[in-house]
Amino acid sequence: MNLGRERLIMFTRQKKNILLCILAVLLVFTVAVSCDTYPITIKPVLIEEGQDVCGGGAGNFVIKTQAEFDSLICLYSTGKNINFEIHQVIAVIDGFRPSGSWSINITCIKEYSDYIVVSIYIKAPKRGATTEITQPYQIVKIPITEKDVVFKYINYIPPIPL
Question: How far apart (Å, rounded) are the C-alpha atoms in residues 106 and 123?
Answer without folding.
Answer: 11
